[in-house]
């Protein structure tokens, strides 16, 4: 089922050299999606992708013809994959050529559509591809956020781990700095190594 609210969040790069097809598809895409950028050949498509990426204006999906002048769709994708390994790409063509199909697989193309395009099926394909792409980006952003939190903790908090016998198995950098011992001196040693002379041994026994 199409989620039109979700589709309205999507920005696409549409690459097509045939003016009539390009103009008619743009009218449809403008109604379906948040933002549509049009390119007229592979070189133009790559240049527009790079221009937007350098300015932080990222596309969510690329839809491209294969047979185009200056640079064909597969050549364009090969260049784009050097900048972005994951963005969903849907190829369109008037020919069912196995050579193109195998090259498309090698370039991690999400879908290979034969013209004339059936709009509802294409919209479903775009929705499926971008939802998976969004989910992956959310996971990656969460991982980066966790890494930032861990970095903050390591800069402000003394952290150590021990086994059940009280032998140290891990210390963070700040713990090492404050204790005056190196990481290699601490890991494997008993936690008593950091006991201050004013601290009674009973405390460490209980710990």
Task: Characterize the structure shown.
The protein has 207 residues and is of the alpha/beta class. It has a five-stranded parallel β-sheet with strand order 2-1-3-4-5. Helix 3 packs parallel to helix 4. The protein is elongated.
Key attributes of the depicted protein:
alpha/beta, elongated, single chain, Beta-Lactamase, Rossmann fold, 15% strand, 7 strands, 50% helix, 2 domains, 207 residues
Structure, briefly:
The chain is an alpha/beta fold. The protein has 2 domains: 4-148, Response regulator (Rossmann fold, 3-Layer(aba) Sandwich), CATH 3.40.50; 157-206, PAS domain (Beta-Lactamase), CATH 3.30.450.20. The chain has helices at 4-7, 19-32, 42-54, 73-80, 98-106, 119-156, 173-179, 183-186, 201-206, and strands at 11-15, 35-39, 61-65, 89-93, 111-114, 160-162, 168-171.
* CATH top level label of the largest domain: Alpha Beta
Do you know the CATH topology of the largest domain?
A: Rossmann fold
Distinct helical segment count: 9
State the order of secondary-structure elements, H for helix, E for strand.
Answer: HEHEHEHEHEHEEHHH
Distance between the termini: 58 Å
Which architecture of the largest domain would the CATH scheme give at its second level?
3-Layer(aba) Sandwich
Average pLDDT confidence is: 86
Report the sheet with the most strands, covering strand number, pairing sense and barrel closure.
5 strands, parallel
- Cα gyration radius (Å): 27 Å
Q: Give the amount of beta strand, in percent.
A: 5-15%
CATH superfamily descriptor of the largest domain: Response regulator
Task: Assign the structural class, choosing from mainly alpha, mainly beta, alpha/beta, alpha+beta, or little secondary structure.
Answer: alpha/beta
Number of domains: 2
Number of strands: 7
Low-confidence stretches: none
């Amino acid at each position: 089922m199409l989620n039109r609210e979700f589709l309205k969040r999507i920005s696409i790069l549409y690459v097509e050299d045939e003016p009539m097809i390009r103009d008619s598809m743009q009218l449809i895409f403008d109604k379906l999606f948040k933002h549509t950028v049009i390119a007229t050949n592979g070189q133009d498509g790559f240049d527009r992708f790079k221009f937007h990426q350098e300015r932080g204006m990222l596309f969510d999906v690329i839809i491209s013809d294969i047979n185009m002048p200056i640079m064909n769709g597969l050549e364009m994708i090969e260049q784009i994959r050097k900048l972005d390994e994951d963005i969903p790409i849907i190829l369109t063509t008037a020919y069912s050529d196995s050579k193109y199909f195998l090259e498309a697989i090698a370039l991690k193309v999400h879908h290979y559509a034969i013209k004339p395009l059936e709009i509802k099926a294409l919209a479903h394909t775009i929705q499926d591809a971008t939802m998976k792409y969004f989910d992956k980006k959310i996971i990656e952003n969460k991982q980066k956020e966790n890494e930032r939190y861990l970095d903050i903790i390591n800069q402000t908090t003394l952290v150590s781990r021990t086994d059940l016998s009280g032998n140290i198995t891990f210390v963070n950098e700040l713990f090492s700095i404050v204790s005056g011992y190196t990481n290699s001196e601490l890991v494997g040693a008993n936690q008593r190594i950091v006991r201050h002379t004013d601290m009674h041994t009973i405390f460490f026994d209980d710990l």
